[in-house]
Automatic annotation (TrEMBL):
One of its GO terms (cellular component) is cytosol. The keyword Transmembrane helix does not apply. It catalyses: hydrogencarbonate + NH4(+) + ATP = carbamoyl phosphate + ADP + H2O + H(+). One of its GO terms (molecular function) is carbamate kinase activity. It comes from Petropleomorpha daqingensis. Pfam families: AA_kinase (PF00696). Signal peptide: none annotated. It comes from the Bacteria. Keywords: Kinase, Transferase. This is Carbamate kinase. The lineage of its organism: Bacteria, Bacillati, Actinomycetota, Actinomycetes, Geodermatophilales. NCBIfam families: PRK12352.1. The keyword S-adenosyl-L-methionine does not apply. Belongs to the carbamate kinase family.
Length: 320
């Protein structure tokens, strides 16, 4: 079903592309945002690329966590890894509905398949003791302080307010990548590794099942590993800014176009990219190219088709 010799592209869809303009995670707002995203993704498929799609889940998993905690006296709470799995299911089915419709209107034969996906992490990863992944809604400092008093970790995220942070270990490998490769090779657009994948550890004992652990993995870092494991040519990190900026948010800000790994690393070392937002995207772009990938692109959703078809959009890092 795919074009012979089609390029394989992994697209990592940011949380911003899946919520309302004000960050609303209301179902209608999510579906509307995903419908818009689906048009841009379908354009990439229409250009002949074999697309594997992954996505964030920060707003959604944070909201599930709140529901879980608030209802704990009525129904048994489930662990965070279960919440991640639940967000994979709801986001994948919504993406599949919208993407199938967008592919159909372009006369394309591809169909979308969502895959519940596990990602292996190390049980002793320092990310378990130093929570860093922002999830859920933004609240005022006063409200955050009430939750901090209950033992939760919250972080000042600037002008939008405070946000809860949870454990976020490094992804090591995508456990289900052979199934993803099989589906992609059979012509499906695969939605997988949502929210960075359900974190699991391997206790190393024969016959012992993998075990889910309570954390939320950064989806951009998982996307870099997934793109490598699938032998993709290009990793596209789709967010809400057309380019990575130097001096972001200041009068001297300037966009980065084509960059070398050395240049990007120097900017990262100088603290140009915020932890929990642009930082992991830049790190993911570097890791993919370091691992042998041809090209990483960071850009806004509106530019992803141009970025894949020709190197004339976004911040583009290529292998030297
Ligand atoms: N140096 C930078 N250049 C561009 N954007 C930056 C930079 N540093 C921080 N950001 C912020 O990163 C945001 C994108 O990250 P994030 O909100 O986590 O994206 P997503 O939810 O799409 O994955 C941008 O909206 C911007 O506010
Ligand atoms: N898991 C994850 O990285 O989600 P966001 O991209 O929504 O933060």
């Amino acid at each position: 079903m795919t074009t012979p010799g089609a390029r394989r592209v992994v697209i990592a869809l940011g949380g911003n592309a899946m919520t309302g303009p004000d960050g609303s995670a209301a179902p209608g707002a999510q579906r509307d945002a995903i419908a818009v995203a689906a048009q841009h993704i379908a354009d990439v498929v229409a250009a002949g690329a074999e697309v594997v799609l992954t996505h964030g889940n920060g707003p959604q998993v944070g909201n599930l966590l709140v529901k879980n905690e608030m209802a704990a006296h009525v129904v048994p709470p489930v662990p965070l890894d279960w919440n991640v799995a639940q967000t994979q299911a709801t986001i994948a089915f919504t993406l599949a509905d919208e993407l199938d419709a967008a592919l159909q209107t372009r006369g394309l034969p591809q169909r979308t398949a969502g895959l519940v996906t596990r990602t292996l992490v190390d049980a002793d990863d320092p990310g378990f003791t130093d929570p860093s992944k922002p999830v859920g809604r933004f609240v005022s400092r006063e409200e955050a302080e009430r939750f901090i008093a209950l033992g939760q970790r919250w972080e000042d995220r600037g002008e939008k307010g405070w946000r809860r942070v949870v454990a976020s270990p490094e992804p090591r490998s995508v456990v289900d990548y052979p199934a993803i490769a099989a589906l992609a090779g059979a012509g499906f657009v695969v939605v997988c590794a949502g929210g960075g994948g359900i974190p699991v550890v391997d206790d190393g004992r024969d016959g012992q099942a993998l075990r889910g652990v309570e954390a939320v993995i950064d989806k951009d870092l998982t996307a870099a590993i997934l793109a490598h494991e699938l032998g993709a040519d290009t990793l596209v990190i789709a967010t809400d800014v057309p380019n990575v900026m130097v001096d972001f948010g200041t009068p001297t800000q300037r966009p980065l176009g084509r960059v070398t790994a050395t240049e990007l690393r120097e900017h990262a070392a100088a603290g140009q990219f915020a932890r929990g937002s642009m930082g992991p995207k830049v790190e993911a772009a570097l890791r993919f190219v370091d691992s042998g990938g041809t090209r990483s692109v960071i850009t806004s959703l509106e530019h992803i088709a141009d970025a894949v078809a020709a190197d004339d959009a976004g911040t583009v890092l290529t292998a030297r």
